[in-house]
Every structure is written in C-alpha cells, then in structure tokens.
Design a protein that fits this description.
By secondary structure, this protein is mainly beta. It has one helix at residues 2-18, and strands at 37-41, 47-52, 58-62, 70-75, 90-94, 100-105, 111-115, 124-128.
C-alpha cells in the first residue's frame, strides 16, 4: 500500500512538472495570406489572440462553456496608415513565455512585444527597437 501511494505521488508530481516547457507552441495557421483576421492560440486553453492582419489591432478572446466569455482589446492602435493596410501584413509568433508573443510587420520588419493577461493592467504592446 505504501508503494502504491508513493507511486501515485510521483506520477502526480511528474504530470505537474511536465507541463512546463521552454519550447514555443506550434501554431496551426492557414497558408491563405488574403485573410483579414487570424486567431492565434495561447498555451491557455481558453485564451486566443485575434489579430487584424491589415493594421495590427489585437483583441484577447476568452471562450468558456459558461459565462466567462469575453473579447477585450489588447491594442486598438493602428500600426500603419489606412492606405498602407494590406491583408496578411501582420503576424504573431509565440515565445517560450505563454503570455508573450512577437508581432511582426511582414512588409517593413518592425516588431512588437505583445503580452496578454487576464489582468487589464498587465496587457501591453510595446515596440522592440
């Protein structure tokens, strides 16, 4: 009985620690560059980032089977002028930190750090210079 309890404890501990990884998550993204919006998964099973690929605007999207659904802004700043908007211009890349992504302007190469959070004060989009 004592061996069984130790085995269960080791199994639970292994499962808890196995979920931490330094590898960036794999994105399953359509190859269609002519889309306006893309949905990027985070490592939180309930949270996605919606990106307007024309101008860089972003929203945090949270789904749930109950009442905790929401869509809130990460950044409503237009990163290009309206005449420079183009479908597929912006793209998000995951990092090893589950809360951070790198946003790239695929035309001129500018990049931003994007941080989502359930706490509004911790959300940010800052240029990387």
């Amino acid at each position: 009985m004592k061996k069984l309890i130790i085995f269960i404890f080791i199994l639970i501990a292994h499962t808890l620690f196995a979920q931490t990884t330094s590898e960036a998550p794999v994105q399953n993204i359509s190859t269609d560059n002519n889309v306006v919006y893309r949905l990027f998964s985070t490592r939180n099973m309930y949270t996605f980032i919606k990106l307007d690929t024309r101008n860089g605007q972003m929203w945090q999207v949270q789904w749930d089977t109950k009442s905790n659904q929401l869509q809130t802004s990460l950044s409503l700043v237009y990163l290009v002028s309206e005449e420079d908007e183009k479908n597929g211009r912006f793209f998000l890349y995951p990092t090893t930190n589950m809360y951070n992504f790198i946003l790239i302007d695929q035309i001129d190469g500018r990049v931003w750090q994007v941080q989502w959070s359930n706490n509004a004060k911790e959300r940010m989009v800052v240029p990387i210079k």
